[in-house]
Design goal:
By secondary structure, the protein is an all-alpha fold. It has one domain: CDP-alcohol phosphotransferase transmembrane (TM) domain (Four Helix Bundle (Hemerythrin (Met), subunit A), Up-down Bundle), CATH 1.20.120.1760. Helix content is 82%, strand content 0%. It has six helices and no strands. Helix 1 runs parallel beside helix 3, helix 2 runs antiparallel to helix 3 and helix 2 runs antiparallel to helix 5. It is globular and about 55 Å long.
């Protein structure tokens, strides 16, 4: 098994560990949950870097890497929505999760047409992912209502705005294929 794929599998294994630690009734739990989430986020960057650097890209990794990312982000956002119990968090979380569903379906459909490259990951998506991961990390650590929580919420809204922007860009790139028989 290639190192990048092992890192991706590690990220998936970390999801239930993250969830368990997040819900532990101890004062240290948010810090360890944040550490686990940060470790998973770093493996997301590192597995792609290593796959390119070591020329270890594989179909398995190309499939599993985005799945692992979406599972970790969705799990974290659902738990944060529950913990904060506020529409202020729920709205951007729904935007982020909804966009991931739409774009995953769009990429799958475009791949069937042989046009997957039309909806490849963009720089906007990379910035969005960075903001999203930072926001989630700090929302896990922060006490609701704290200055850190408000800063993390602002970051989550920036990530949600970029999420919408990148979704619009992807839809524009695929629009002629989506509407050619209307």
């Amino acid at each position: 098994m290639k190192i990048p794929n092992l890192l991706t599998l590690l990220r998936i294994v970390l999801i239930p560990v993250f969830v368990l630690v997040f819900y532990l009734p101890y004062s240290w739990a948010p810090y360890w949950a944040g550490f686990i989430f940060a470790l998973a986020a770093v493996t997301d960057w590192f597995d792609g870097y290593l796959a390119r650097k070591l020329d270890q890209q594989s179909p398995f990794g190309a499939f599993l890497d985005p799945v692992a990312d979406k599972l970790m982000v969705a799990a974290a956002l659902v738990m944060i929505v529950e913990a904060y119990a506020s529409p202020i968090i729920t709205i951007p979380a729904m935007i982020i999760i909804g966009r991931e569903i739409v774009i995953s379906a769009l990429r799958e459909w475009m791949a069937e047409l042989g046009k997957r490259g039309n909806v490849a990951v963009s720089n906007i998506g990379k910035v969005k992912t960075t903001l999203q991961m930072a926001a989630i990390f700090f929302l896990v650590l922060a006490q609701p209502g704290s200055a850190l929580a408000w800063a993390a919420i602002a970051t989550l809204y920036m990530a949600a705005a970029l999420t919408l922007w990148s979704m619009i860009e992807y839809l524009k790139a695929a629009w002629s294929d989506l509407t050619d028989d209307l």
